[in-house]
């Protein structure tokens, strides 16, 4: 097998609750630590706080789909798509 579970620290799999403010309302989001780290990376690249990034992603989901009933699922999916995009661009040959 790929040994991804056994080679990572237990903390990477622990769920962490964080409060974020969206449209003036405080809400709690529960994600595994690995997803929080990915969101923090994305936020840093975008030059914003993690809370601001989450709010922006929430608004984007509303605009695109009309709702975001499970914000944690949206965020997990965004993290996976973000990693896919980064890997795709990293693997592309650079033009001189």
TrEMBL record:
Domain Ribbon-helix-helix: residue ranges: 16-82
One Pfam family from the record: RHH_4
Domain of life: Bacteria
Name of the protein in its database record: Ribbon-helix-helix domain-containing protein
Species name: Rhizobium calliandrae
